[in-house]
Write a structure and sequence with these properties.
The protein is an alpha/beta fold and about 270 residues long. The strands form five sheets. Strands 2-3-6-7-10-11-12-13 form an eight-stranded parallel β-barrel, surrounded by seven helices. Helix content is about 35%, strand content about 20%. It starts with a strand and ends in a 6-residue tail after the last helix. The protein has a single domain, classed as Alpha-Beta Barrel (TIM Barrel). Helix 1 runs parallel beside helix 2 and helix 1 runs parallel beside helix 8. The chain binds zinc ion.
Length: about 270
């Protein structure tokens, strides 16, 4: 049977307690929420952290604390963000790579974020890819628009990315590509042969994107970074509740839920 990898993006940079009262903010809350998501079936956690005021930070000490608390509880694969938050410098965003996580996100192009934007030029992408290669960190190639896939192909041509490639299609960011089955199919068709992909639908696209992932032999990402609702107007109780539904949908589709060891093997992570 085919495997379904479920990533949980538990905190993100932009989601607030006002939007989602159960949003984990402190390293301990982040570790607890990650562990619940792991027990529900997530094998990968996409990690952002917050400072004491609850604002997004790339502070290496806060990442270190969250990561060590998570590792005390379970062996879930940890993917740190290098997208950071709107307004952060590339150097600031890259900091958690020093902690040698098994995976990290690598944004493959400049993108609108509502009225704001995050800058990722090719030189920035090269710098990030080199930093990840030096620590043997597997990047998730996050693409918010079709041109981002072509930017990743440029890095592959330059020898800066090594297979197996794992793409993350971030769909429905305001100002980026909307989620539709047609757009997703177009994206998957542009990946190099043998690539893996995870589908991330933001806001109301989150649940349709889960089905899109199943339909395209891709992997699922859910969690409060992308979406705080369980259904229209009903907040999710926890990150785990969103993972549980993704597990049910995957099993109905005849898929096995991957364990962290399966992810390490499939993505050829350093710890495999
Ligand atoms: Zn993120």
């Amino acid at each position: 049977m085919s495997q379904m990898i479920i990533t949980c993006a538990i905190t993100g940079a932009e989601t607030t307690r006002e939007q989602q009262p159960a949003l984990p903010l402190t390293p301990q809350e982040i570790a607890n929420s990650t562990y619940e998501a792991y027990l529900a079936g997530a094998s990968l956690v996409h990690l952002h952290v917050r400072d004491a005021a609850g604002k997004p930070t790339q502070d290496i000490k806060v990442f270190q604390e969250a990561m060590s608390l998570i590792r005390k509880k379970c062996d879930i694969v940890i993917e740190v963000t290098t997208g950071g938050a709107v307004g952060m410098s590339p150097e600031e965003r890259l900091q958690p790579i020093q902690l040698e996580p098994e995976m990290a996100s690598l944004d493959c192009g400049t993108v609108n974020f509502g009225d704001e934007y995050i800058v990722n030029t090719l030189p920035i992408m090269r710098e990030f890819a080199n930093a990840m290669n030096a620590k043997r960190v597997r990047p998730t190639l996050e693409c918010f628009d079709l041109g981002h896939i072509y930017a990743s192909l440029q890095l592959i041509k330059e020898g800066l990315l090594k297979p197996p490639y794992h793409y993350g299609f971030v769909m429905n960011v305001p100002g980026g590509v909307p989620y539709t089955p047609e757009n997703l199919t177009l994206f998957t068709n542009r990946m190099p042969a043998g690539s893996f992909h995870t589908v991330m639908g933001v806001g109301r696209a989150s649940l349709p994107a889960v089905y899109g992932a199943v339909a395209t032999n891709g992997f699922i990402r859910v969690g409060f970074e992308d979406n705080v609702y369980f259904s229209k107007g009903v907040l999710a109780k926890s990150n785990a509740e969103l993972v549980e539904r993704a597990v049910r949908i995957s099993r109905e589709a005849g898929l096995n839920i991957a364990k962290p060891s399966d992810v390490r093997q499939l993505f050829q992570l350093r710890g495999a």
